[in-house]
Amino acid sequence: MKIFTSIPALKIWLKDNKSNNASIGYVPTMGFLHEGHEALLNKAIEENDLVVLSIFVNPLQFGENEDFDRYPKNIEKDIEVAKKYGVDAIFHPSVHEMYPSEMSATFKVHHMDVLCGAKRPGHFDGVATVVMKLFGIVTPDRAYFGLKDAQQVAVIERLVKDYHLNIDIVRVPTVRENDGLAKSSRNVNLTKSERAEAPYIYKTLLEVKNWILDERCYDTDKIEVKLKTLLSKRLSGNLDYAEVRGFPSLKKMKTLSSDVMIAVAIKYSKARLIDNVIFHLEEKEGKLCIDK
Amino acid sequence: MKIFTSIPALKIWLKDNKSNNASIGYVPTMGFLHEGHEALLNKAIEENDLVVLSIFVNPLQFGENEDFDRYPKNIEKDIEVAKKYGVDAIFHPSVHEMYPSEMSATFKVHHMDVLCGAKRPGHFDGVATVVMKLFGIVTPDRAYFGLKDAQQVAVIERLVKDYHLNIDIVRVPTVRENDGLAKSSRNVNLTKSERAEAPYIYKTLLEVKNWILDERCYDTDKIEVKLKTLLSKRLSGNLDYAEVRGFPSLKKMKTLSSDVMIAVAIKYSKARLIDNVIFHLEEKEGKLCIDK
């Protein structure tokens, strides 16, 4: 397995391999790999001749009062994980390698000032900018993103479409702890009691999904009241948002229809957790069908 | 010669040709082709297996009170010119084909609020956005840009570098009428008397360049006073700017050094003209050398 910190060195290696028509799968991460990332690597390995994993904590996507400085790191362990899964190259650049000087142009993401976009101003501008840079460097055939960051998936899918990149964006389902908590690098920043209650995030999402099914309640206002009531009863963290929206449209609906996401963000003392459930809703022969 | 109005059709044609390892030269234009564009086509034909010419008047790069609606068009003549030069494919999309819905993300260009960037707010954001889209569609090996739009060249060179695109940006010198006026699609929007005096733009640029050489005056303040005095004496149009800057740095200098651009923009009743001279300045063995 190759480890590159230099963009030109990685590009030479890629060029050599591309000349043999090798397909490139790409897993962009901020490191501190967990089983969620491993699911991305697994799928990438399955579907491509070569897999590139990048590990880069991108300062551009962190707000001033966010956790850039305390974002967890463990490069040695990440290298072991990558080796285990058969990754062909790790790209692990410094901030200076990625941003030797201020960018001449960055992305302004539009119509994304909802959910995390509303709560983290500039976050998706930074994500779009670094992902387009990374796509330019790696030029993958396929890139793998986890659905825990559902809004990020929506942003990147639109970016790839609008800028006509020949890259398939592959959505990978959220991986969870045994108790249901979505795997996240930030979980290590939870206190013991926060960690103990955090599984209620997903439990509540599932409960509300089932309540929609049982009650046939498609009124999103009512659903959100139910969701918020349950979450605030069960969780000590601050509710950043708890909303029902279309996915990947992210549009607000008065009445639930077709592709639905229930999304939640909770602020704890040193970690902000997000989670969601996404499902397809369909009336069929008078019966309600939910899948995914 | 193929003519494409559809992005997917062009992409299929490109894919077929790329699979034969054909190198692609690309000349992006807004149409109404003149000898300046022909110089771009000529160079592209010389250096590549296949040449794609795009003709698209991009609404995103025009300000509200600018000349988008009256930008000159003559697609039949453009097709004849393209055929004459041996262009392989014209890409001539509608606005709807390029922007079927509002872009999910556009570029914000930084540190370019000088020269045309200061006078045309948002112009280079629109240029960067459409050029990155077009590069995504055409995926050329080389792309050709005229030095009349020197700031545009600087913007695009930085964009390609910052987003790691494997595209060579080829600078092509300005082509001029016999009387020295820089070829421009907008020249047809000059009145007779404006057209008669317009050659003084370039004459003055040359005169100031020679004056710098003769007087060994490197003080940019003094040079700009000289330039503005001459231009306002000779031209009835409004001076939008007349400045001495580094190129491609576009930085203001107190004292001239190395790569210099003298750039001018004049506003006439229905056309805004820009022009520049770019040269390399060097003290060698006590003697001043200017080339380019």
UniProtKB/TrEMBL annotation, chains A, B:
Q: Does the keyword DNA damage apply?
A: no
Q: Where in the cell is it found?
A: Cytoplasm
Carries keyword Transferase?
no
A biological process (GO) of this protein is:
pantothenate biosynthetic process
Report the EC number(s), separated by commas if there are several. Answer: 6.3.2.1
Q: Where does beta-alanine bind?
A: 61
GO molecular function ontology, one term from the record: pantoate-beta-alanine ligase activity
Where is the chain membrane-spanning?
none
Signal peptide positions (record): none
- Positions bound to ATP: 30-37, 146-149, 175, 183-186
**Which InterPro entries does this UniProt record tie to the protein?**
Pantoate_ligase, Pantoate_ligase_C, Rossmann-like_a/b/a_fold
**Gene3D superfamilies (UniProt xref):** HUPs (3.40.50.620), Pantoate-beta-alanine ligase, C-terminal domain (3.30.1300.10)
Q: Where (R)-pantoate is bound, by residue?
A: 61, 152
Quick one: which pathway?
A: Cofactor biosynthesis; (R)-pantothenate biosynthesis; (R)-pantothenate from (R)-pantoate and beta-alanine: step 1/1
Q: Which UniProt keywords apply?
A: ATP-binding, Cytoplasm, Ligase, Nucleotide-binding, Pantothenate biosynthesis
One GO CC annotation: cytosol
Subunit structure comment from the entry: Homodimer.
- Role this protein plays: Catalyzes the condensation of pantoate with beta-alanine in an ATP-dependent reaction via a pantoyl-adenylate intermediate.
**Family in the record:** Belongs to the pantothenate synthetase family.
**Could you identify this protein by its name?**
Pantothenate synthetase
What species is given as this protein's source?
A: Evansella cellulosilytica (strain ATCC 21833 / DSM 2522 / FERM P-1141 / JCM 9156 / N-4)
- List the top taxonomic levels of the source: Bacteria, Bacillati, Bacillota, Bacilli, Bacillales
Report which gene this protein is encoded by: panC
